[in-house]
From TrEMBL:
Transmembrane segments: none annotated. This is histidine kinase. PANTHER family: PROTEIN PILG (PTHR44591:SF14), STRESS RESPONSE REGULATOR PROTEIN 1 (PTHR44591). Residues 3-116, 126-240 form the Response regulatory domain. Residues 289-503 form the Histidine kinase domain. Its EC number is 2.7.13.3. It catalyses: ATP + protein L-histidine = ADP + protein N-phospho-L-histidine.
């Protein structure tokens, strides 16, 4: 925070301002007369001087001329006078602001603080002045430089356009009559290079039509010369503030856009990973099921081939059995191929949404697990209504069902039950069919029942990916327009799929 001299003969006011500024971190000296002020200014270098105009030994205005020739201090006038002429003259001298003291000083104090803080901002804005008059250059610099602005000034339109191409400005002040070009043409060229930078047009002579044209061509404001300095300064401050905010907003928008894009990318990537993982898990379970179904025929083939070999080794005549064996092996190979086709059909991706028979879709899933269930002594009871048409992706639906049946099968794995039952049945209500898949394996702990549809949630420490139910729910909801829910019964878990019928 900067160094401030308060020149004010009322000890009370001087103290109030002083305390407030010290609280904000400013370093403060207090002068109560012209003489004291002069002494302080002579010995110190102040960033700001807060100046009362009426002092016991003279007029504060004398200090202003003095200070301007001696130092870079910025002056803020604090006065109870509401003299517009004086006020304007002081602005011409380059004071930072003119604050009228209110009765309780509160309002003026806050205003004062605002001005000081703004003037303290380190990053200065750059202004380009395009005017052919040296006097205007001097005047504008005199009032803008104390306000922390960097002013670059040129005399012709061509110089201005060249400079704008090379440097960034926060504001352009443009005289309408220039020696080489018409200001309106310069404005047009400025807009070609930078469509957003604010432009104030100055003119001494412009008629209404020209003013209209200037504003339509993209000027942000128009000021008639000779201008009122305070109005000029207010407009400069306002336009630059506004421009700075719009740039910030634009930056924020761009950042936001970038973030959204990034997150969408991340989500897509997650989806891709998920689909690859679920595909891998599916393949694992297909191979597992195929291998179960192949075991039996492969066994028969192996035994048959063994029979031929042993008979042959023993020197027995194999002519009479070879025919028999050939038939058996052939039959088993047919069986193997058929199983393979069933699986291939089942896991072929669906191309179209179609109406299909619910019974048939359930049969397809059941066919694949039957052997495994039998081997694990699980009794599968299917009791479903026939001739019910539903709509969606057929194979996907059967896969979802398979995931649910497989989970029921897994649930029995650590249970020693007399009778293991998986029951698949339907109930019909109006246009809806409810398909229930129920087991008696003890159910799902209440603690986790809300989580089982989340991706990667699994209690099967090594063997589960936790994607089975997530995928099943996704298929039922997104591709079948249905609903998959779960509840515990007194004996086990009960999954219900609600679907619309299309008979
Ligand atoms: N019928 C059921 N009885 C008891 N618990 C079940 C049943 N069905 C699902 N669960 C629980 O829900 C969890 C999530 O099932 P999900 O099918 O999503 O994954 P997973 O079976 O563990 O893994 P994956 O399906 O990849 O083999 C299971 O780990 C299990 O704890
Ligand atoms: Mg599962």
């Amino acid at each position: 925070m900067g160094k401030v001299l308060i020149v004010e003969d009322s000890r009370f006011i001087n103290k109030v301002i002083s305390n407030r500024l010290k609280k904000e971190g400013f370093q403060v000296d207090n002068a109560y007369s012209l003489q004291e002020a002069d002494d302080y200014i002579y010995q110190n270098n102040y960033d700001f001087i807060i100046l009362d105009l009426h002092l016991p030994d003279g007029e504060g205005i004398d200090i202003i001329t003095n200070v301007q020739s001696m130092s870079n201090s910025k002056i803020i006038v604090l006065s109870s006078l509401k003299d517009d002429y004086l006020r304007e003259e002081l602005f011409k001298f380059g004071i930072l602001d003119y604050i009228v003291k209110d009765r309780h000083l509160n309002y003026s104090l806050e205003e004062l603080l605002k001005i000081l803080k703004k003037a303290e901002l380190k990053d200065s804005e750059k202004i380009l002045l395009v005017d052919d008059s040296k006097v205007v250059h001097m005047q504008v610099k005199k009032v803008l430089i104390p306000r922390n602005y960097i002013v670059k000034s040129v005399y012709t339109g061509e110089q201005a356009i060249n400079l704008i191409k090379k440097e960034k400005f926060s504001l352009i002040i443009l005289d309408i009559t220039l020696p080489d070009m018409n200001g309106v043409d310069v404005l047009e060229k400025i807009r070609e290079v930078n469509s957003k930078v604010p432009v104030i047009v100055l003119s001494g002579t412009a008629d209404a039509a020209t003013v209209r044209k200037i504003l339509k061509n993209g000027a942000n404001d128009y000021i008639k010369k000779p201008f009122i300095f305070e109005e000029f300064l207010l407009k400069v401050d306002l336009l630059i503030d506004h421009y700075r905010q719009s740039l910030k907003l634009e930056e924020l928008n761009q950042e936001l856009e970038k973030k959204v894009k990034q997150q969408v990318e991340e989500l897509l990537e997650k989806d891709r990973i998920l689909s690859v993982q679920s595909r891998l898990a599916e393949m694992g379970s297909i191979i597992n099921m195929i291998s179960h179904q192949w075991k039996q025929p492969l066994n028969v083939i192996s035994v048959t081939v063994g029979r031929i070999f042993i008979n042959y080794k023993k020197g027995k005549d194999i002519d009479n059995i070879i025919n028999d064996c050939y038939k058996t092996v052939n039959l088993q190979i047919e069986n193997l191929v058929e199983t393979l086709h069933t699986f291939m059909d089942f896991f072929k991706p669906d191309k179209n949404i179609e109406k299909f028979d619910l019974y048939e879709a359930i049969r397809n899933s059941v066919k694949l697990v039957e052997t495994v269930l039998k081997k694990e002594n699980i009794n599968l009871k299917v009791n479903i209504e026939e001739n019910i048409l539903i709509k969606g992706f057929k194979n996907e639906f059967s896969q979802a069902l398979l995931n649910i049946i497989n989970n029921a099968k897994d649930a029995f794995s650590d249970k020693d039950l007399k009778e293991k039952i998986i029951k698949i049945c339907t109930t019909k209500k109006g246009n809806f069919i409810y398909l229930h898949i129920e087991d008696n394996a003890g159910g799902i702990p209440e603690k986790i029942i809300d989580k089982i549809f989340e991706p990667y949630f699994s209690t099967k420490s090594n063997s589960g990916t936790g994607l089975g139910l997530y995928i099943a729910k996704l298929i039922i909801k997104k591709h079948m327009n249905g609903k998959l829910t779960v509840e515990n019964t007194s004996e086990g878990a009960k999954f219900t799929i609600k679907l619309k019928t299309y008979n």
